[in-house]
C-alpha cells in the first residue's frame, strides 16, 4: 500500500495529460512540480513535455497564475517575502517571476511584520533576550532585518492604527 504522500504509479492507459489535469483539478501547480510528479509516476519525459506545453497553450497551466496564487495565500498566512521567494524557488519558479509577483502583490511588508508579531506576542519584550526571540520569530517567518526591527518598534504602539 502506498502512502498518501507518495505518488501512485501510472495507471495503464492514463496519459500524462490525464494525470496533469487530475492534479490541476485539486490545486494550481508549477510546471516544475507537475514535471516532477509525473516522472515519479513513470511517465516518459517527452510525453510530459508535450502535455505540459499543450496545457500551457490552452491556459490550463500557468506558472504566472500559480505564482500569483501562491504569493497571495502565503501573505494571508503571515509569511514574509524572503520565505515566500524561497518556497517559489523550490517549486521551480524563476527569481524574476517571483520578484514580480511579490511586487505586484501590493503587500506592505513592514505592516504585515507588525501584524504577525502582535498576533504572536503581547509585548515587545523587556529584555534583550526576549527581543531577540521576537526578531528570530520574524526571521523564521521570512521577514528581513529592517522589517523585523520596524515591527519590534511599532507593533505594540497603540498610536500605530
Q: How many DSSP H or I helices? A: 9
Averaged pLDDT: 91
How far is the N terminus from the C terminus?
54 Å
CATH architecture of the largest domain: Orthogonal Bundle
Total domains: 3
Biggest sheet features = none
Q: Rg, please?
A: 20 Å
Number of E-type strands = 0
Element pattern in H and E = HHHHHHHHH
Highest-level CATH class of the largest domain: Mainly Alpha
Q: Which structural category do the helix and sheet elements fall into?
A: mainly alpha
> What fraction of residues sit in β-strands?
under 5%
Tell me roughly what share of residues is in helical segments: 55-70%
Low-pLDDT stretches: 1-5
Oligomer: single chain
Shape: elongated
GO cellular component, one term: cytoplasm
Family: Belongs to the RecX family.
Pfam family, one: RecX_HTH3
Protein name: Regulatory protein RecX
Which key terms come to mind for this protein?
Arc Repressor Mutant, subunit A; elongated; disordered N terminus; 9 helices; 3 domains; single chain; 161 residues; mainly alpha
Provide structural commentary.
- This protein has 9 helices and no strands.
- It has 161 residues and is mainly alpha-helical.
- It folds into 3 domains: 16-57; 63-104; 109-160, Arc Repressor Mutant, subunit A (Orthogonal Bundle), CATH 1.10.10.
- Belongs to the RecX family.
- Residues 16-53 form the RecX first three-helical domain.
